[in-house]
From TrEMBL:
Belongs to the acyl-CoA dehydrogenase family. GO terms for biological process: fatty acid beta-oxidation using acyl-CoA dehydrogenase; fatty-acyl-CoA biosynthetic process. InterPro entries: Acyl-CoA_DH_CS (IPR006089), Acyl-CoA_Oxase/DH_mid-dom (IPR006091), Acyl-CoA_Oxase/DH_mid-dom_sf (IPR046373), AcylCo_DH-like_C (IPR036250), AcylCo_DH/oxidase_C (IPR009075), AcylCoA_DH/ox_N (IPR013786), AcylCoA_DH/ox_N_sf (IPR037069), AcylCoA_DH/oxidase_NM_dom_sf (IPR009100). It is an enzyme of class 1 (oxidoreductase). This is glutaryl-CoA dehydrogenase (ETF). It comes from Salegentibacter salegens. GO terms for molecular function: fatty-acyl-CoA binding; flavin adenine dinucleotide binding; glutaryl-CoA dehydrogenase activity.
Amino acid sequence: TDNFQAPDYYNIDELLTDEHKIVRDAAREWVKREVSPIIEDAAQKAEFPKSIISGLAEIGAFGPYIPEEYGGAGLDQISYGLIMQEIERGDSGVRSTASVQSSLVMFPIYKYGTEEQRKKYLPKLASGEFMGCFGLTEPDHGSNPSGMTTNFKDKGDHYLLNGAKMWISNAPFADVAVVWAKDENGRIHGLIVERGMEGFSTPETHNKWSLRASATGELIFDNVKVPKENLMPNKSGLGAPLGCLDSARYGIAWGAIGAAMDCYDTALRYAKERVQFDKPIAGTQLQQKKLAEMITEITKAQLMAWRLGVLKNEGKATSAQISMAKRNNVEMAIKIAREARQVLGGMGITGEYSIMRHMMNLESVITYEGTHDIHLLITGMDITGIPAFQ
Ligand code: TGC
Ligand code: FAD
């Protein structure tokens, strides 16, 4: 059974509205009921549990902040963050699916797409009838997507798309792919590619030790004819995909707190029950140091995410502020997972507890959506005015 108790050391609940708490609690209950009982098995089998798609839609995880007229939940940014926190408390791979669907597929269609594209895709993505993926990364261009080589040519009544994307979450089962590719002038645009288009395939990436309950794959475009109406016309250039990443990275800053909370709660509970040398290990200074530092770091991360959410609601959060929170909170979570695993001793390496799964998942989270290093360089550029990427 899932007895998770969310830590709230600084009464952060007092900063939340009733709506935030209702949305958060509904997501929390759903994770306990629908995700916790099946997720370990899914991760062990390396299968994305498709049975949870309709539940994700019901808790508002697909397009939390997309307006209701397009099927979204019409919530604010803090509710969005809280939903991500609760889902990642269950598993980072499940949160990945929600992040991609909401911020990397629905967000660009809503922001950069035509009214026809919004009406055609958003309601079905919100309900989970359509699943989406986002293709930016390529085999030779990960941290530096501006070097991408995937390209399309204007053939009069359609575009001809060629190239390949790698490491794409949800790719193996996605119905639609938001794909970033260069036109004949080298300008980046977003295209909506649909499963079934001739020359489009999505081979699955196997043997991952991380995000095993999330399906990852490639997107291969071999002379794919893309109808002209599938180009999203309202923004081009690298800023278009990076704008989507801002929204997803913000969600991850909250999501990582969920994974950390679960590790802390599990370690605290275990330490109070586990007796060695005739007393609970929670009564030893070494284990208290671990647990006390965990709750301190979680509390700092919660405050950072909450403040960022307020700024985001006001339309004032900068990309660099989002980078700082993504970087800090994911590192916080991965460090807590590693410490919490030790608190459990040998039991910590088993699937009886969620910690090792979180720890392995977070190895992807610290790398995707901009690596730990890239986010540091974004902060460095922001405070000095000098880019140090090259
Ligand atoms: P740079 O010259 O700095 O910028 C190019 C244009 O973009 C604008 N811009 C942004 N716009 C919106 N949001 C942001 N965060 C932005 N950052 C930059 C910028 O103003 C400029 O606009 P304009 O109008 O002047 O052209 O670009 P650069 O080539 O030097 O790159 C900068 C860098 C390294 C920060 C960027 O390339 C980067 O962030 N790299 C990391 C790549 C990355 O995060 N990939 C993630 C792939 S998706 C993914 O991982 C999904 S995992 C999903 C899951 O399962 O949850
Ligand atoms: P590289 O860019 O080759 O980096 C390798 C190392 O070099 C890193 O440590 C990096 O920090 C460092 N490095 C790079 N540049 C510099 C520099 N200038 N200075 C110092 N150090 C540097 N992408 C998508 O488009 N869509 C998805 O849905 C998606 N899902 C993913 C799911 C998983 C499970 C994973 C693992 C990745 C996913 N990605 C996705 C790709 C992810 O965004 C990239 O892996 C990430 O951006 C890093 O690119 P890379 O792996 O090519 O590493």
